[in-house]
Amino acid sequence: MRTAVRTAPAALPAVVRTPLLVSAVAGLVVVVALGLRFAGDSVASAFDAPLLPGPDLLPDPWWYVATVVDFVGEPVGSAIVIVLFVGVALLARRVRTALLVLVGCGLTIAVTSLLKPVTGRTIHGGYLSYPSGHTAFATALALIGAFVLADRLGRAAALTVTAALALASGALMAWTEVGLGAHYPTDTIGGFATALAVIPATAFAVDRVADRL
Fold it and tell me: Which residues, at least 6 apart from 199, have a Cβ–Cβ distance to it below 8 Å?
Protein backbone atom coordinates (compact mmCIF):
# COMPACT_ATOMS: atom_id res chain seq x y z
CA MET A 1 0.00 0.00 0.00
CA ARG A 2 1.44 3.37 -1.04
CA THR A 3 1.41 6.28 1.40
CA ALA A 4 1.17 9.81 0.05
CA VAL A 5 4.17 11.91 1.01
CA ARG A 6 3.97 15.70 0.87
CA THR A 7 6.98 16.90 -1.11
CA ALA A 8 6.51 20.63 -0.55
CA PRO A 9 5.30 22.87 2.29
CA ALA A 10 1.55 23.29 2.38
CA ALA A 11 -0.04 26.36 0.87
CA LEU A 12 -2.44 26.45 3.84
CA PRO A 13 -0.65 25.19 6.98
CA ALA A 14 -2.61 22.76 9.13
CA VAL A 15 -2.15 24.99 12.18
CA VAL A 16 -4.46 27.66 10.69
CA ARG A 17 -6.48 25.58 8.24
CA THR A 18 -9.77 25.18 10.11
CA PRO A 19 -10.03 28.75 11.48
CA LEU A 20 -9.15 30.23 8.08
CA LEU A 21 -11.68 28.10 6.22
CA VAL A 22 -14.35 29.18 8.71
CA SER A 23 -13.23 32.78 8.16
CA ALA A 24 -13.52 32.24 4.42
CA VAL A 25 -17.20 31.37 4.82
CA ALA A 26 -17.69 34.48 6.97
CA GLY A 27 -15.90 36.57 4.34
CA LEU A 28 -18.22 35.25 1.64
CA VAL A 29 -21.26 36.16 3.74
CA VAL A 30 -19.96 39.71 4.26
CA VAL A 31 -19.19 40.20 0.56
CA VAL A 32 -22.68 39.08 -0.47
CA ALA A 33 -24.45 40.99 2.31
CA LEU A 34 -22.69 44.27 1.56
CA GLY A 35 -23.12 43.76 -2.17
CA LEU A 36 -26.88 43.35 -1.75
CA ARG A 37 -27.07 46.30 0.64
CA PHE A 38 -25.23 48.75 -1.61
CA ALA A 39 -26.27 47.46 -5.04
CA GLY A 40 -26.99 50.38 -7.33
CA ASP A 41 -26.05 53.01 -4.73
CA SER A 42 -24.18 56.15 -5.68
CA VAL A 43 -24.00 57.91 -2.31
CA ALA A 44 -22.15 57.35 0.94
CA SER A 45 -23.97 55.41 3.62
CA ALA A 46 -24.38 56.64 7.19
CA PHE A 47 -21.38 54.47 8.09
CA ASP A 48 -19.26 55.80 5.24
CA ALA A 49 -19.95 59.53 5.53
CA PRO A 50 -18.00 60.31 8.75
CA LEU A 51 -14.95 58.41 7.45
CA LEU A 52 -14.67 60.14 4.08
CA PRO A 53 -11.97 62.80 3.55
CA GLY A 54 -12.81 66.42 2.84
CA PRO A 55 -13.09 67.85 -0.67
CA ASP A 56 -9.32 68.33 -0.85
CA LEU A 57 -8.73 64.64 0.03
CA LEU A 58 -5.45 63.83 1.82
CA PRO A 59 -3.09 66.71 2.62
CA ASP A 60 0.62 66.65 1.82
CA PRO A 61 2.72 64.62 2.54
CA TRP A 62 0.11 61.91 3.13
CA TRP A 63 -1.18 62.20 -0.43
CA TYR A 64 2.23 61.13 -1.74
CA VAL A 65 2.39 58.23 0.72
CA ALA A 66 -1.05 57.11 -0.40
CA THR A 67 -0.15 57.25 -4.10
CA VAL A 68 2.86 55.00 -3.46
CA VAL A 69 0.72 52.47 -1.57
CA ASP A 70 -1.97 52.70 -4.26
CA PHE A 71 0.59 51.79 -6.95
CA VAL A 72 0.89 48.30 -5.43
CA GLY A 73 -2.69 47.62 -6.47
CA GLU A 74 -2.39 49.07 -9.96
CA PRO A 75 -1.84 46.66 -12.91
CA VAL A 76 1.89 47.37 -13.24
CA GLY A 77 2.50 47.49 -9.51
CA SER A 78 0.56 44.31 -8.80
CA ALA A 79 2.37 42.48 -11.60
CA ILE A 80 5.75 43.50 -10.15
CA VAL A 81 4.74 42.40 -6.66
CA ILE A 82 3.38 39.06 -7.89
CA VAL A 83 6.60 38.32 -9.80
CA LEU A 84 8.66 39.15 -6.71
CA PHE A 85 6.49 36.97 -4.45
CA VAL A 86 6.59 34.04 -6.88
CA GLY A 87 10.35 34.38 -7.31
CA VAL A 88 11.01 34.38 -3.57
CA ALA A 89 8.66 31.42 -3.07
CA LEU A 90 10.41 29.38 -5.75
CA LEU A 91 13.84 30.24 -4.34
CA ALA A 92 12.60 28.99 -0.97
CA ARG A 93 11.28 25.85 -2.71
CA ARG A 94 7.71 26.66 -1.74
CA VAL A 95 6.10 25.61 -5.01
CA ARG A 96 2.60 25.55 -3.58
CA THR A 97 3.00 29.06 -2.21
CA ALA A 98 4.15 30.27 -5.63
CA LEU A 99 1.09 28.64 -7.21
CA LEU A 100 -1.15 30.21 -4.56
CA VAL A 101 0.23 33.66 -5.35
CA LEU A 102 -0.58 33.22 -9.03
CA VAL A 103 -3.94 31.50 -8.72
CA GLY A 104 -5.12 33.09 -5.48
CA CYS A 105 -4.27 36.66 -6.42
CA GLY A 106 -5.60 36.11 -9.92
CA LEU A 107 -8.93 34.84 -8.57
CA THR A 108 -9.13 37.67 -6.05
CA ILE A 109 -8.67 40.26 -8.77
CA ALA A 110 -11.12 38.44 -11.05
CA VAL A 111 -13.81 38.24 -8.36
CA THR A 112 -13.60 41.93 -7.47
CA SER A 113 -13.61 42.87 -11.16
CA LEU A 114 -16.72 40.76 -11.81
CA LEU A 115 -18.57 41.98 -8.72
CA LYS A 116 -18.20 45.65 -9.61
CA PRO A 117 -20.61 45.63 -12.60
CA VAL A 118 -22.85 43.08 -10.89
CA THR A 119 -23.22 45.25 -7.80
CA GLY A 120 -23.33 48.50 -9.72
CA ARG A 121 -22.32 50.75 -6.84
CA THR A 122 -20.66 53.93 -8.08
CA ILE A 123 -18.65 56.83 -6.71
CA HIS A 124 -18.03 60.29 -8.19
CA GLY A 125 -20.76 59.99 -10.75
CA GLY A 126 -20.03 56.72 -12.46
CA TYR A 127 -16.91 54.88 -11.29
CA LEU A 128 -17.73 51.35 -10.15
CA SER A 129 -16.55 50.99 -6.58
CA TYR A 130 -17.72 47.81 -4.81
CA PRO A 131 -15.69 45.92 -3.76
CA SER A 132 -12.25 47.53 -3.57
CA GLY A 133 -9.85 45.49 -5.70
CA HIS A 134 -6.82 47.27 -4.26
CA THR A 135 -7.82 46.34 -0.70
CA ALA A 136 -8.56 42.77 -1.74
CA PHE A 137 -5.18 42.41 -3.44
CA ALA A 138 -3.22 43.83 -0.48
CA THR A 139 -5.07 41.55 1.93
CA ALA A 140 -4.51 38.53 -0.31
CA LEU A 141 -0.75 39.09 -0.34
CA ALA A 142 -0.70 39.56 3.42
CA LEU A 143 -2.59 36.31 3.99
CA ILE A 144 -0.22 34.36 1.74
CA GLY A 145 2.79 35.81 3.55
CA ALA A 146 1.19 34.96 6.88
CA PHE A 147 0.68 31.35 5.78
CA VAL A 148 4.42 31.04 5.19
CA LEU A 149 5.18 32.38 8.68
CA ALA A 150 2.51 30.17 10.23
CA ASP A 151 4.52 27.05 9.33
CA ARG A 152 7.08 28.07 11.96
CA LEU A 153 4.68 29.05 14.75
CA GLY A 154 2.33 27.47 17.22
CA ARG A 155 -1.43 27.71 16.72
CA ALA A 156 -2.08 30.82 18.82
CA ALA A 157 0.91 32.70 17.44
CA ALA A 158 0.12 31.66 13.87
CA LEU A 159 -3.46 32.89 14.10
CA THR A 160 -2.35 36.13 15.74
CA VAL A 161 0.24 36.83 13.06
CA THR A 162 -2.20 35.97 10.27
CA ALA A 163 -4.90 38.25 11.64
CA ALA A 164 -2.44 41.07 12.35
CA LEU A 165 -0.86 41.02 8.89
CA ALA A 166 -4.17 40.79 7.07
CA LEU A 167 -5.77 43.57 9.10
CA ALA A 168 -2.74 45.85 8.90
CA SER A 169 -2.33 45.45 5.13
CA GLY A 170 -6.04 45.73 4.48
CA ALA A 171 -6.35 48.80 6.71
CA LEU A 172 -3.39 50.53 5.06
CA MET A 173 -4.80 50.03 1.58
CA ALA A 174 -8.29 50.95 2.78
CA TRP A 175 -6.96 54.23 4.20
CA THR A 176 -5.22 54.86 0.89
CA GLU A 177 -8.27 54.20 -1.30
CA VAL A 178 -10.66 56.19 0.87
CA GLY A 179 -8.14 59.01 1.28
CA LEU A 180 -7.62 59.27 -2.47
CA GLY A 181 -11.36 59.37 -3.03
CA ALA A 182 -11.46 56.11 -4.98
CA HIS A 183 -13.74 54.14 -2.64
CA TYR A 184 -16.26 54.33 0.15
CA PRO A 185 -15.08 52.71 3.41
CA THR A 186 -17.62 49.90 2.97
CA ASP A 187 -16.07 49.14 -0.43
CA THR A 188 -12.80 48.39 1.32
CA ILE A 189 -14.53 46.15 3.84
CA GLY A 190 -15.95 44.24 0.91
CA GLY A 191 -12.49 44.01 -0.64
CA PHE A 192 -11.00 42.69 2.59
CA ALA A 193 -13.78 40.12 2.89
CA THR A 194 -13.27 39.04 -0.73
CA ALA A 195 -9.63 38.16 -0.08
CA LEU A 196 -10.61 36.44 3.15
CA ALA A 197 -13.07 34.30 1.22
CA VAL A 198 -10.86 33.52 -1.79
CA ILE A 199 -7.33 32.96 -0.47
CA PRO A 200 -7.89 30.26 2.21
CA ALA A 201 -10.25 28.34 -0.09
CA THR A 202 -7.77 28.54 -2.96
CA ALA A 203 -4.89 27.47 -0.73
CA PHE A 204 -6.91 24.48 0.48
CA ALA A 205 -7.68 23.53 -3.13
CA VAL A 206 -4.02 23.85 -4.14
CA ASP A 207 -3.03 21.46 -1.35
CA ARG A 208 -5.73 18.94 -2.19
CA VAL A 209 -4.84 18.85 -5.87
CA ALA A 210 -1.08 18.73 -5.18
CA ASP A 211 -1.49 15.90 -2.66
CA ARG A 212 -3.43 13.82 -5.17
CA LEU A 213 -0.88 14.43 -7.89
Answer: 24, 100, 104, 108, 139, 140, 143, 144
In this prediction, residues 71-77 reach a mean pLDDT of 94
Q: What is the DSSP letter of 49?
A: G
Select from 124, 91, 110 the least CA-distant residue to 195: 110
For residues 193 and 132, the answer to whether their CB atoms sit within 8 Å is no
Q: What is the DSSP string of 139-168?
A: HHHHHHHHHHHHTTS-HHHHHHHHHHHHHH
Tell me the pLDDT tens digit for each residue of 164-178. 999 999 999 999 999
Task: Name residues whose C-beta falls within 8 Å of residue 46's C-beta, 6 or more positions apart in sequence.
Answer: none
pTM: 0.92
| Residue count (the chain) | 213
Taking only the tens place, the pLDDT of each residue in 54-64 is 777 888 899 99
- 98: Cα within 13 Å, side-chain hemisphere: 13
| Cross-strand partners of 206 | none
Query: Looking at residues 139-158, what average pLDDT do you find?
Result: 93
196 closest CA partner among 11, 25, 12: 25
